[in-house]
């Protein structure tokens, strides 16, 4: 059987604002995981449209397409093309799970939810000549997961070929999070066995790892055992975690001892009122400044994630957020415009209140306003978002952030990481066009390895109070 797996390009990856490095970070791990279930005699290819063209002249027997909200239009184009050529087309992913009836119009089979239980059943049904039109995930386990088909990934096309996922989902239930819809109908957070995770890590060459788990620290017992097992491997790694996990005694220390050097942290907002509104319970009454100090004291760089446009945000939120992040030495920041994805509680709430502007999924990209903000205009929200990026990544801002570090090495590391991520687009473009992204990995490893324990001055960094005067009061993120 000839099998073609496709990750269509997100709409934002084809826009004039396209940053090649952003979309050349990680290979399509989900498709490579599904490929592990295929028979040895099957001929399979994986095409990532972010880094290569899709050759549509072929005639595969089975086509598998992973769909996100801003790649839905392109995914449906490809699906319709291959169905017309007689291929059996499968669609799955976040958007398919959120809007299955829409996706079913373009597929022979759709998959709702994770595929570890449904994909093997489909393959058995397909070989028996009786594939179903829809498979819904109910059994959530990573037991018996076959080795990921990393041989199908062209490593040289990616800056971070050693990406890895050892869990699924997240234990938290934030209203704006797309993952809640994806895991509906079963467990929304579960992990591999520690031994299986360590075996997968051991298969990866080199030093660097990037855990793409939504919340690697979500199960403290699992995370502790994983970090203990990674000690002595000589790895340098990055991941995502929560403010709650960072403040948990002992867990961060074990992560650092096993090689953690950079953490993506969902601060989301500097307005405390927004947290309860979005059910971001794990951030409420947490000292954000203590989170940053704790990470920096252990040599861990911070990629802070912030969402603009929640109902307690007014036009002052952009400058206040940027100033707060710079003042606390956050190395890189990821900003988003609040986006109500279909299938989330936020979407349902916005739809019921008549606040959604349209259902053009191409524009649900966290950079475009698709709803009516409460305390500012759509134009103010969009302009403020772009201004936040410009202001945070100015050389003056980068140097100000670097100046918060107590050592010369720390200042240099901050400037190198933040500047390298945003200030050298021509160099990144050249490297990526030459298909040599992986050659930049030693530079990343050198910067990550520069983390040393150092005590920093104790400065307050609690949530900033929201502006609450009558006249002025009006989240599928990049990871650096």
Automatic annotation (TrEMBL):
SUPFAM superfamilies: Radical SAM enzymes. Residues 471-480 have a biased composition (Basic and acidic residues). Residues 37-133 form the B12-binding domain. Pfam families: B12-binding (PF02310). Residues 156-375 form the Radical SAM core domain. Residues 458-480 are annotated as: Disordered. One of its GO terms (molecular function) is metal ion binding. Its cofactor is [4Fe-4S] cluster. Keywords: Iron, Iron-sulfur, Metal-binding, Methyltransferase, S-adenosyl-L-methionine, Transferase. It comes from the Bacteria. GO terms for cellular component: cytosol. The keyword tRNA-binding does not apply. This is Radical SAM superfamily enzyme YgiQ, UPF0313 family.
């Amino acid at each position: 059987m000839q099998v073609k797996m496709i990750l269509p390009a997100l709409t934002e990856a084809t826009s004039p604002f396209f940053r090649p490095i952003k979309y050349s970070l990680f290979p399509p791990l989900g498709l490579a995981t599904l490929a592990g279930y295929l028979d040895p005699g099957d001929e399979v290819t994986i095409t990532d449209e972010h880094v290569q063209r899709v050759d549509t002249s072929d005639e595969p027997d089975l086509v598998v397409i992973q769909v996100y909200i801003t790649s839905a239009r392109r995914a449906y184009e490809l699906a319709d093309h291959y169905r017309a050529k007689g291929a059996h087309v499968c669609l799955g992913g976040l958007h398919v799970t959120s809007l299955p009836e829409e996706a079913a119009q373009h597929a022979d089979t759709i998959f709702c939810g994770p595929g570890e239980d449904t994909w093997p059943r489909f393959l058995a049904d397909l070989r028996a000549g009786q594939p179903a039109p829809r498979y819904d995930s109910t059994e959530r386990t990573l037991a018996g997961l076959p080795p990921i088909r990393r041989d199908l990934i062209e490593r040289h096309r990616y800056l971070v070929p050693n990406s890895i996922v050892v869990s699924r989902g997240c234990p938290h239930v934030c209203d704006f999070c797309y993952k809640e819809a994806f895991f509906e109908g079963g467990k929304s957070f579960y992990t591999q066995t520690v031994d299986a995770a360590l075996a997968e890590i051991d298969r990866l060459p080199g030093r660097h790892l990037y855990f793409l788990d939504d919340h690697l620290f979500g199960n403290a017992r699992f995370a502790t055992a994983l970090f203990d097992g990674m000690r002595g491997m000589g790895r340098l790694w990055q991941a995502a975690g929560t403010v709650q996990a960072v403040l948990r005694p002992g867990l961060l220390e074990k992560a650092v001892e096993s090689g953690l050097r950079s953490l993506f942290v969902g601060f989301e907002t500097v307005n405390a009122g927004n947290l309860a509104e979005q059910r971001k319970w794990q951030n409420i009454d947490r000292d954000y400044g203590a989170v940053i100090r704790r990470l920096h004291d252990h040599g861990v760089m911070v990629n802070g994630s912030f969402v603009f446009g929640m109902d307690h945000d007014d036009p002052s939120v952009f400058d206040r957020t940027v100033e707060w992040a710079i003042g606390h030495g956050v190395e890189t920041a990821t900003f988003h415009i609040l986006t109500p994805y279909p299938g989330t509680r936020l979407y349902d709430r916005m739809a019921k209140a008549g606040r959604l502007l349209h259902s053009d999924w191409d524009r649900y990209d966290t950079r475009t306003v698709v709803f009516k903000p409460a305390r500012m205009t759509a134009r103010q929200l969009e302009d403020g978002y772009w201004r936040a990026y410009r202001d945070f990544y100015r050389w003056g801002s980068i140097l100000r952030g670097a100046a918060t570090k107590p050592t010369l090495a720390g200042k240099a590391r901050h400037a190198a990481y933040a500047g390298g991520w945003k200030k050298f687009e021509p160099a990144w473009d050249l490297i990526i066009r030459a298909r040599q992204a992986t050659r930049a990995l030693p530079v990343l490893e050198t910067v990550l390895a520069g983390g040393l324990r150092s005590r920093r001055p104790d400065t307050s960094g609690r949530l900033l109070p929201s502006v609450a005067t009558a006249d002025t009061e009006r989240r599928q993120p990049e990871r650096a």
